[in-house]
Structures are given as structure tokens and as C-alpha cells.
Amino acid sequence: MKNYIMFLLLAGQTFVAAAQDNKSLYLTKSLSGNAVSNVTAKTSAGSIVVTGSAGQAPRIEVYIKATNGAALSKSDIKKRLDNDYFFDIDVTGHNIKVSAKTKRQGGNFDWKKGLNISLRIYVPKQCSTNIETSGGSIGLDNLNGDQRFTTSGGGLQLDRLTGNIRGNTSGGGIYISNSNNNIDLETSGGGIEAKNCSGKIKLNTSGGSLQLTNLKGSIDAQSSGGGIDGININGELTASTSGGGITLKHIAGNLDAATSGGSLFAELTQVGKYVKLGSSAGNINIELPQKQGYDLSLRGENIGLPSFNGFKGKRQEGLVQGKLNNGGTSIIAEASGGDVNVKFN
């Protein structure tokens, strides 16, 4: 949890700096009179924030500062832009295109003279985006449409999005909240926190943990770099990690969870057609609703299961197979490196 809090603090500082540092505000371009429905924005060294808001005048704000922290006048910035960068803002019909990239690459460019070019764009809520930066964070808020975004140098902060949402980062964490429909997010450089979202949700990280809160729909959560914590999830959850344990509370629906990096705890308040749990590095602890029918298949070094008159099947050390209360939901749990314990709530 401390890692997530630290990520949010750092992300907040990044976006505030890009949005509110008036000293680095280079220009503002009004979009009044343009019925904008699509934004394409690319920058090679800076953050990009796109906000859909009826309460804000549609506009583009460009923030520019020296990458080495040196103070620059607007004339100094313009000279560097003209000499070393392709910088263009084009508004045609319903489309906005903003591009800021260096003319020179590799050893041909003195990065001490480089510029950090960040963008904050205010548009109507009904707007799609195509965002790319290699040197900063990306923020999207209150948008409805297709959102595509990628960064190799910062985190993703996403809130109040509806539509097809697809993004990735190799240099930071991801935070998404209050969003729905189709969500597909990936990072190789940090953790992921998803909160108050619904729909088809796919989350993948190879560099951190996963925090899942108040999700509904079909959720696929994968991590090879940390543990997975989930609470209040309704629908169908697939969760796996090779980098930590899994803790799931207040789960309703179908569940398929596996870890090779720790123990697994799953508390289900309502079961669907199946529950499948696996651990090769620790114990499995399951809490299930009482007075329901189950088809049980439990394997582990030891099996902890209360005795019931309604159980029919095989019960021995390390193995339980059979039907409870005439059968029903399939419960499969296999712990190759620990015990399996079942309780009823």
C-alpha cells in the first residue's frame, strides 16, 4: 500500500507541475468555435494531460522548460524550438494534432540544450485520443470515446473514462478509477491500481503489484513482479502472479487465481459456476458461503475442512474429492507447497 501511495503522490506532483507552473507556460491556443472530437498528441520529452470538461474553455496549453533546469526566456525557447524541434499545432475540422519532437537524434543532439515540452489540452467530453510521449506521464480525465496512449518515461493517471481504453507504459505505475467498458492497460515499470471500474478489464504488470477495488465485469489481472490484492469484485476474475501472494476479499462470481510467489487467500460472498485456486509456494485459504452445494477437489500437504453430514466422496490426508450438499459449484484448489484450508461464512 505504501508503494501505491508513493506512486500517487509522485504522479500528482508531475501533473500539477505540468499544469500549474505558470513560469513554464509558453503559449495558449484557444479552440473556441471548433467542435473537437479527436486529439492526436506526441511529444518526445514531456507530460500530456487531456481533460474533457464543459466548465473549461476548450484550449491547448503548452508548457516548456529547459531539461537541465536553466531559466529560459520565451525568445530563448523560440530559438531552440526553431533550431532543434519540429513543433506544430494543427486544428482541422474536428481534429487536433499537436507534435513536438527533436530534429536531431543520438549523438547529433546536445541534450543539455534540450526542452521539456508538456501539454495540457481541454476538450469536450465526447472526444477520442491518440497520445504518445517518451519522456513523461500521461493523464486522461472525463472523456468518452476511444483512448489510445503510450509512454516509456512515466506513469498513467486515468479517471472517468468511458469507451475503448488501451494504454501502456514501460517507465511507471498506472492508476485508473471510475471508468468502464473496455479497459486494457500494461506496464513493465510499476504497479497498477484499479478502482470503481466496470466492463471488460485487462491489467498486466511485470514490474509491480496489483490493487483491485470495487470492480465489476470480466477482469483479467496478471503480475510477474508483485502480489495481488482485491476487494469487492463482482463477475469473473482471473488473477495470477509469480511475484507475490494473492489476497481476495468480498468476491462474487467465478474465480480463477494462481500464484507461484506466495500464499493465496480467497473470501467469496457469492459463488458462480467455478472457483479454481492454485499455489506452488504457500498455503491456500478459502472462505465459502454456507448451505450451498459444491463439487470439491482439494489437494495439498494437508487439508483443513470441517466435517459435514452432507459430504459424499473421498477424504484422506492431502486429498479431498466429492460432493457437498449434493454438489454444485466446482471448487478446485491445489497447493503443491502448502496446505489447503476451507471455511464457511
Number of separate helices: 2
Domain count: the total is: 2
Regarding quaternary structure, how should these chains be classified? single chain
Residue windows where pLDDT falls under 50 for at least 5 positions = 1-20
Record field, number of beta strands: 25
The description of the largest β-sheet is: 25 strands, mixed
Task: Give the end-to-end Cα distance, rounded to a whole number of Å.
Answer: 27 Å
Rounded average pLDDT: 90
What general outline do the C-alpha atoms trace? elongated
Q: What class do helices, strands and sheet pairing give? A: mainly beta
The percentage helix is: under 10%
Give Rg in angstroms.
Answer: 25 Å
Order of helices and strands: HEEEEHEEEEEEEEEEEEEEEEEEEEE
What share of residues are in beta strands?
Answer: over 45%
What does this protein look like?
- The protein contains 2 helices and 25 strands.
- By secondary structure, the protein is mainly β.
- It has 2 domains: 23-179, no CATH class; 191-344, no CATH class.
- It has a 25-stranded mixed β-sheet that branches.
- The two termini are 27 Å apart.
Topology:
Elements: H1 2-20, E1 25-30, E2 38-43, E3 48-52, E4 59-66, H2 74-84, E5 85-92, E6 95-102, E7 115-123, E8 128-133, E9 138-144, E10 147-151, E11 156-169, E12 174-177, E13 180-187, E14 192-205, E15 210-223, E16 228-241, E17 246-259, E18 264-279, E19 284-288, E20 294-299, E21 303-304, E22 311-316, E23 319-324, E24 329-335, E25 340-344
Parallel strand pairs: 2-6, 2-8, 3-7, 3-9, 8-10, 9-11, 10-11, 11-12, 11-13, 12-14, 13-14, 14-15, 15-16, 16-17, 17-18, 18-19, 18-24, 19-25, 20-24, 21-25
Antiparallel strand pairs: 1-4, 4-7, 5-6, 20-23, 22-23
